[in-house]
Amino acid sequence: MQEKGNISIHTENIFPIIKKFLYSDHEIFLRELVSNAVDASQKIKRLASIGEYAGELGALKVTVSFDKEAKIITISDAGLGMTADEIKKYINQIAFSGATEFVEKYKDKGDEKAIIGHFGLGFYSAFMVAERVDIISKSYQEGAEAVKWTCDGSTEFEISEATREARGTDVILHIAEDSLEFLEEFKIKQILDKYCKFLPIEIEFQEKIINNPTPIWAKSPSELTDEDYLKFYEELYPFSEKPLFWIHLNVDYPFNLTGILYFPKVKNELQLQREKIQLYSRQVFITDEVKDVVPEFLMLLHGVIDSPDIPLNVSRSFLQADSNVKKINSYITKKVADKLAELFKADRKGFEEKFENIGLFVKYGMISDEKFYDRAKDYCLLQNVDGKYFTLNEYAEFAQENQKDKNDDVVYLYASDAKAQDSFIQSAKKRGYDVLKLDSVLDNHFINQLETKLVKTNLKRVDADTIEKLIDKGLALEVVLSETEKETVKKVFEEVINDKSKVVALEAMPVDELPAIITQNEFMRRMSDMARVGGGGMGMFGAMPNNYIVSVNANHASVAKILQTTDAEEQKKLAKQVYDLALLSQNMLTGADLTAFIQRTALAL
């Protein structure tokens, strides 16, 4: 038997199969061919299970081998095999998928989703790296003879008799000169590890099984222990810290989805490492670019998502438009929110201990997803500088008692750097006020969101102004200085500071407050901080110069001391010391100015 002919290409599908443009990444050829071999193996297994194949199944493993000298890569399986007529139908008619017909025929007899089903168009990815491809196949059907199909990448093919004892298929790639890199053992192993690590049929390479056919996401959670989940995490991310906890996803309606999402330890860094969640379709690796499948804020998670409703040859435009992908995205968001609520209710103390790590997920989700905000507001925690945690409702009730201003608005004071802002924190505590710790990279955005959500509530950084102005109770203190004295003090400080970006203002403050403080306009400072983190449209604020107010405590003893001396130089020395103390309290005193301050202070001892 020998036959020559032309491959029938359906015109609407001609572009996707052009040799060099079928896929952007040429290494995909191995994923496609191994997936096809797995598909053929699962088909014969399925036929045996429903009594339509009575022969011995034997070992259904797929073998990948190569011969560097002969420039050949071979993918062999013991699956369904093909007759000459089937090769003509499934290989020569490119637009036709053998898996589609198989699923249609047997869909009433079991789970048609178990078939990977890309023997057809995907097969032609072989020609991205091969100058010639041979198929030697023998069908499982009784009396079937082995057959060989050969094609050099053109539309011409040849079918002839072949020798093969057992059922199954060998796909033999004669590698082209421009693709010899794929004949290196490490390269083949790298591709198999990436795409075939969890395929449901054993894959053999260099006499070793290189995959795990039964990954834990394909099992029922009731079969698994914590140790199983931790072991799998280590398999995915060797040398990583243990995760905090995980979520096992398992849904079959209105879409199919399995997977495991791990919460890693993430503290004060926005680690959007997009390669940390892997997307699979029936255990075949698709991509680690899971944006659109997973909500943006959950890109911080690690793990695996597997959905047969996402095709192998997925594109960004498909992900954005597909209704199933949108449903999956919503489902994952809800599942994560429910898991966090469950942990909070079951063990609040344990949840508080983890919140330093998971707070970033929660806040990011609340900022970026309105539905997630509604779910998370009951377990999102605020921590004060003393380490005590409150829910949003608890803190609102707590602050109502003492932190209302003259307009009946509640003021939340917060520190973005508790150590650097300690003197301001102590000032607030003297008045009986509480100070929150909001120092994560997202907190500027989170603060803005809280102000839009919380009724008659303002958030103010503890060093943004004098404490009397931050929570203005309407109780005005009096300045003990005359107008002439005020002008004298202001002039001395302006001469010492000599900086147009800093405005001097004399304020009536308690005598036990600092002699001077430096503050920045709250709105401008917040916008600048958000611009640094990466807030949309905030770039202009990040580029604007900083302006500060130097608030001199007119009632402080140091001001009285400045007025008591008549020596102008002595007045400036005293004012310089007060000003440097104010700079020091804001971490703004550096270099030679800091050295000079230390030396002056040491001499005064």
Automatic annotation (TrEMBL):
Keyword ATP-binding among record annotations: yes
Gene it is expressed from: htpG
This protein's UniProt keywords: ATP-binding, Chaperone, Nucleotide-binding
Protein name: Molecular chaperone HtpG
Matching PROSITE patterns: HSP90 (PS00298)
Keyword RNA-binding among UniProt keywords: no
Record-annotated membrane-spanning stretches: none
Family: Belongs to the heat shock protein 90 family.
Name of one Pfam family that matches: HATPase_c_3
NCBIfam families per the UniProt record, alphabetical: PRK05218.1 (NF003555)
Taxonomy, superkingdom: Bacteria
